[in-house]
Write a structure and sequence with these properties.
The protein is α/β, with parallel strands linked by helices. It has 11 helices and 10 strands. The protein has an 8-stranded parallel β-sheet. A two-stranded antiparallel ribbon has the order 1-2. The longest helix is centred in the N-terminal third of the chain and has 13 residues. The relative contact order is 0.14. Bound molecules: adenosine-2'-5'-diphosphate (A2P). The site of adenosine-2'-5'-diphosphate has 14 residues, from helix 10.
C-alpha cells in the first residue's frame, strides 16, 4: 500500500493533522472475532480503526493492535463518548484508554447529540481533554450542521470531524458542502449497508472497472474526499474493501452514483 501518494489515502484535518480515508468499522464485532478482524485488517494495510465505548470491543481493538506489532504512531484510532455518559467525559475517556492500552486516541467523538441537543458543555469537556493530550483530535457524530454551529457559537471551536451515515443513496450535496465550508471533515459510516449493491447502474460501473459494487461504493467516498469505515469481520471482504486505491472513478461515474438508490 505504501507506494501510493499519501494524499490518495489521507485527508488533512483543519488542524493540519492527517486522517486515513479508509478505516475498519467495528460495530457488532465482539470477542475473538473482533481481535482477528482488526489484526487481519492491520496485516493487509489498514491504519485506521473505528471503535466506540458503546461497541464493547475497545479491549479487543487494543489487543489486536498490541499483537500486530504495528507501531502505535502509524495508527489512527477513533473511539466515542456514549450520549448517556455526558457529564462523565474524563472517566469515560480514561476507561477507553485503559481498555485500548493507549496513552491517547487519535480522534474522540460525541457518539450522538446527548438527548438530541448539541450540548456545548460536553463539547467543552472534549476540548479540555484534548488540551491535556488524551485525544489528538475531537469531533462529533450524528450532529446536524445547526448543532455544529451551536458548538462553535458557544466555544469558538469547531469539531474536526462529523461522523454521519453516508453512501451514494444518502448523498446530499448541501450537507457535504456545509461541512466543507466550515472545515469539518465528513466521515461516513454504513457505506455498504445503506446501498443496494445490485443496483444496475452500480453493477455496470463495477464491471467496467473490473471491481466489485462494494469497491465502487467505497471508491465513491474517496472521490468525494469523505472518510469511509466499512465494517467487516470476514477476511476476504476486509481485503476487498481495502483494494480501492488501485482504480479511480471518472467524474461521470461519481455524478451518476450521487443519489443512487
Ligand atoms: P461481513 O462482516 O460479513 O463482511 P456497513 O459498514 O455499511 O454498515 O456494512 C456492513 C455490512 O456489510 C456487514 O454486514 C458486512 O458483512 C457487509 N460487508 C462488508 N464488506 C462487504 C463487501 N465488500 N461486500 C458485501 N458486503 C460487505
Amino acid at each position: 500500500m505504501s507506494e501510493h501518494r499519501s494524499s490518495d489515502r489521507n485527508v488533512e484535518l483543519a488542524s493540519g493533522a492527517t486522517m486515513p480515508l479508509l478505516g475498519l468499522g467495528t460495530w457488532q464485532a465482539r470477542g475473538r472475532g473482533a481481535v482477528d478482524a482488526v489484526r487481519y485488517a492491520l496485516e493487509v494495510g489498514y491504519r485506521h480503526i473505528d471503535t466506540a465505548t458503546m461497541y464493547g470491543n475497545e479491549r479487543q481493538v487494543g489487543q489486536a493492535v498490541a499483537e500486530s506489532g504495528v507501531p502505535r504512531a502509524e495508527l489512527f484510532v477513533t473511539t466515542k463518548l456514549p450520549q448517556s455518559h455526558a457529564g462523565r467525559e474524563r472517566e469515560t475517556l480514561e476507561e477507553s484508554l485503559a481498555a485500548l492500552g493507549f496513552e491517547h486516541v487519535d480522534l474522540w467523538l460525541i457518539h450522538w447529540p446527548p438527548g438530541g441537543s448539541s450540548r456545548p458543555d460536553v463539547w467543552e469537556q472534549l476540548l479540555e481533554l484534548q488540551g491535556e493530550g488524551l485525544a489528538r483530535e475531537v469531533g462529533v457524530s450524528n450532529y446536524s450542521l445547526r448543532q455544529i454551529d451551536e458548538l462553535e457559537r458557544a466555544t469558538g471551536r469547531l469539531p474536526a470531524v462529523n461522523q454521519i451515515e453516508w453512501s451514494p443513496a444518502l448523498f446530499d450535496r448541501d450537507v457535504l458542502e456545509g461541512h466543507r465550508s466550515r472545515g469539518v471533515q465528513v466521515e461516513g459510516y454504513s457505506p455498504l449497508r445503506t446501498m443496494n449493491l445490485r443496483a444496475p447502474r452500480l453493477v455496470q460501473i463495477a464491471e467496467r472497472h473490473g471491481v466489485t459494487p462494494a469497491q465502487v461504493v467505497l471508491r465513491w467516498h474517496l472521490e468525494h474526499r469523505v472518510v469511509a469505515i466499512p465494517k467487516s469481520t470476514n477476511s476476504e471482504r476486509i481485503s476487498e474493501n481495502a483494494a480501492i486505491f488501485e482504480f479511480q472513478l471518472t467524474p461521470h461515474d461519481v455524478g451518476s452514483l450521487d443519489g443512487l438508490r
